[in-house]
Structures are given as C-alpha cells and as structure tokens.
Amino acid sequence: MSRDDKNIPYRDAFYLFCESPGAPREWMTKPFLSKDGKWAVATDGFSMIFTKRLELFDDIKKVDPKYDKVVSSHIKEIADPSRVIQTKEFDLELVPNLMDEIIYPQHECPECHGEGEVEWEYSGKSREYCSDFTCPVCDRDGTEGKPRKSGRQIPDPNKLFKIENVIFSDLQLRRLLTCAQLIESKVIYNAVLNPKGANIFQVKDFYILIMPMSTDRGQKTPQIKFKKLGEN
Ligand SMILES: [Zn+2]
C-alpha cells in the first residue's frame, strides 16, 4: 500500500464535514487552510473539523479573510491547555432511533401533469373567467398515489439526542461516528460540554466542533449511553 492509499480513509472522513459540491457557499465545499497555515479546516456551517495533518490535502488554499476570525477563535479553543478532556465512547446504535421508511409515489398526476395546479374556468354573463387552483386530484403534490410504508426501518434524521445536558441532532452525531469508523477509531474524546456553544470532540488527530441544538421542543430526548472504554 502506498503512502497515499493509507491517507484515503482520513481524507474521506475529513470531507464528510464539507458542503456538497455545487452548494451556494462555494468556499465550504472543500477544506481550507487556517490563517497561520498550520491547520486544515472544513465546515458546512453546523460542524467544523480541524487537523494538522496537512499531508492529506493537495492544493489547499488559505481561508477567506472574511471567515478567518471565527476559524481562529475555534483553533484557540482546541489548543487551550485548560480544556478538560474526558475519554468517553458512545454508540448511537445503542439508542433506538428507527422510523418507518415512507415511499413517495413517482408517477406524474394525470390531471395536472405534475404541475400541482389546474386551471378553472367560469363562464360569467359577459365574459369567461379563469384562474389557477390547487389540483383536486393530487392536492398540489403533482404525483399520483398515496405515500406508503416500505416495511423497512431507517434512522430518523430529525431525532435529537442528549449527551449529559446538551442536545445534539442525530445527523451531527451520526456523521461524527461515521468519521470515527472510517479511520477505525471507535473512541471519541469528549471535552466539557457546552449547551450554548461549540462542543469539541476528538477522533485520533481530528478535532470536530459541533453546535448543539438550542431546544428539544419539549420532546423526551433520549440520553446517549456511554460504553466503558475497551468494551465492545
Ligand atoms: Zn394533480
């Protein structure tokens, strides 16, 4: 295996935190360098990932000066020696989070031809009136048939979880775990949690900041159970 092959899972794990190609915030679609040139950074606006392993990236450009301030302040947080690190491992699979998969019909509505609206005409005394209305067959959906359950269970993307008193979205935590799995690091180091600001997690030499959710809207949000280190 060449040196580069070894880097592929690390690069893939890092790119999980970029915006998808073609996203409106173009600068977020690939990793960039911190102002001091020591850190590679990527973000999609909800999470931010940092590493000093610059050899993972070719042709990486410096951060846009507009965004340098926020990036630099997070780097300061990561490097803060007073930051208390707790070593905890968690596994989302331990928390039930399944919903019925719903399949939406793909056939175009024969009445409105997928437009979702139909034209209504009314003959008045002296003239004809017409207007667009919601299609009565598909109710603006543009497709024919009713959504139905596939019979499969899938992870619910809107689910929230609590780690201690801090609320995170399933999407954010699942991505963190995917990152850990890609680089075969099950253990996630978790700093003191902040219910209002960025929370720092560590997977090998990747640092990942995740913004918490401000409210769980009164739901009964399940707690993530931590496994003891070394347990499988
Ligand atoms: Zn229709």
List the helices and strands and how they pair.
Blueprint: H1 3-15, E1 32-33, E2 40-43, E3 47-51, H2 68-79, E4 85-90, E5 98-103, E6 117-123, E7 128-134, E8 148-155, E9 160-163, E10 166-169, H3 170-182, E11 188-191, E12 199-203, E13 206-210, E14 226-227
Antiparallel strand pairs: 1-2, 2-3, 3-13, 4-11, 4-14, 5-8, 6-7, 9-10, 11-12, 12-13
The structure holds zinc ion (ZN).
Question: How would you characterize the overall build of this protein?
Answer:
The protein is α+β, with helices and mostly antiparallel strands. The protein has two domains: 3-96 and 155-227, DNA Polymerase III, Chain A, domain 2 (Roll), CATH 3.10.150; 105-146, no CATH class. Helix content is 16%, strand content 30%. It has helices at residues 3-15, 68-79, 170-182, and strands at residues 32-33, 40-43, 47-51, 85-90, 98-103, 117-123, 128-134, 148-155, 160-163, 166-169, 188-191, 199-203, 206-210, 226-227. Strands 1-2-3-13-12-11-4-14 form an eight-stranded antiparallel beta sheet, with helices on both faces. Strand 12 (199-203) and strand 13 (206-210) form a beta hairpin. Helix 1 (3-15) packs antiparallel against helix 3. The structure holds zinc ion (ZN). Residues 109, 111-112, 135, 137-138, 142 line the site of zinc ion (ZN).
